[in-house]
Amino acid sequence: MQALRHWRLAFRTAERTARPKPSFCVRAADSRAHARPRGLSRASSAAWRRPCVLGGMTQHVARPALRKILVAFDFSGPSEQALLQGHAMALACKAQLLVCHSIANMVRINALFPERNWLDALAVPQRMEAAGDRAEQRIYELTARKRADVLLLLDHGPAGPVILRHAEEQDVDLVVVGSHGHAGMRNALMGSVAQRVVRYAHCSVLIARRSPKSGQVLMATDFSDRALPALAAAADEAKRRHAHLTVLHSLGLGVPVVINATASHPGTQLLPPKEAIDAARAQGLELMTESLARLDVEGHRVLVAGIPEDDIVETAASLPAELVVVGSRGSSGLSRVTLGSVAETVATRVSCSVLVVREAEPTAQAASAAAS
C-alpha cells in the first residue's frame, strides 16, 4: 500500500506540472417478425484502483443469449465470410439469422433527361426483386438455409446507415460485417462501412475476416465494467470454437507522461517506482486468475507493460489468434462516437476476426414491446 500511495503522489505531482428513411422490403416466411493518474492507462490504474471489481462478477458477467444476428451482405468475398461466421454463430446459439442487403443509387437524378428519373423509379421494384432472388440463391449456396430459415432485409441507400437502422429496428443482439478495407491506410484492415457500424451500432459487432484456425481466442481486459461482458463473450466463443482462451492485460507503461516546458527536464517520461509496478503486476495476475475461475474456464494469462493497443495487436499476431475480443466504451447517443481508442485501433489493425462487445441498448421497438 505504501508503494501504491507513492505511485499516486508521483503522478499527481506530474499532473500539477503538466496541465430521409428509404423504403425496404422483407423476405421471409414470417415478416412480423474514479480519475486515473496521468501516464497510467485505464488498464493498469484499474488493477490497483478497483481491486474488488470482480468480486460481484457473478451477477454481471453472464452474457445474454443471442436471439437475433444480423449479417451485412453485398455478394463480396468479405461479406460472404461474414455470412458464414454469422451462420455458424446462429446455429450454435439457436438464434434467428437476418441478412441485410442494400442497393445504392437506385434512382439517379438526371437533369438533362428528367424523364429517365421516372424510368429509374419504375424499375426499382424489379431491381429489388432480382436482388432478393440472387441473395436468396447465394445464401442457400453458402449456408444451405432455405427461404423460411432466414429473414432477408432488402433496402436501398448507403450501406452503413441502412445496416444500423435495420439493426435497431429489428432489435438484434449482434451485427456481423465483413472487412473490406477500401478507405485508406488507417482503415486498411477494416473499411469505412465496418468502422461506421462498429462505432455507432447499439449492440455488439463482429468484424469477420478470414482467420487461421489456430484454436486461439485472445481477450484483452482492463478490469473495467465494460470488460466483464467481453470476458464472458470470449469464454463463450472459446467453448464454441473448442479453442484455448488467452486473457491479456497491459499495464500501459509505454504511454509517455510528458512534463511541461517549465519543468527541469522537459519531455521526461515519468515512470512509477519499481515496487508499484511489481504490485500492479501481481494484482493484475491475481484478478485474471479470479476472473477465469469465476467463469469456470481454463485460460492462459498474459501481462505486459507496453502500449495497450500495440500489445494486443502483437500478441494476436504471435499466437496467432483466430478471434480477438475487446470491450467497447461507447453507450448511446454522442457517446457512441468515442468507441474507445484501444478497441477501435485493435479492430482496425489486427488481421483476424474481432468481436467488439457492447452491452445492447434498449431500442425503441424493445421499449414499446416491454411497455405493452
Could you explain how this protein is built, in words?
With 372 residues, the chain is α/β, with parallel strands linked by helices. It has 2 domains: 41-64 and 210-362, 3-Layer(aba) Sandwich (Rossmann fold); 65-172, Rossmann fold. It contains 12 helices and 11 strands. It has helices at residues 2-18, 42-49, 77-93, 115-122, 124-143, 159-169, 192-200, 227-241, 274-294, 308-318, 341-349, 364-371, and strands at residues 24-27, 68-72, 96-103, 151-156, 174-178, 204-208, 216-220, 244-250, 299-304, 323-327, 353-357. It has an 11-stranded mixed beta sheet with strand order 1-4-3-2-5-6-11-10-7-8-9, with helices on both faces. Helix 3 links the parallel strand 2 and strand 3. The longest helix is centred in the C-terminal third of the chain and has 21 residues, at 274-294. It starts with a helix and ends with a helix. Mean pLDDT is 76; it is low at 1-23, 29-60, 182-189 and 330-339.
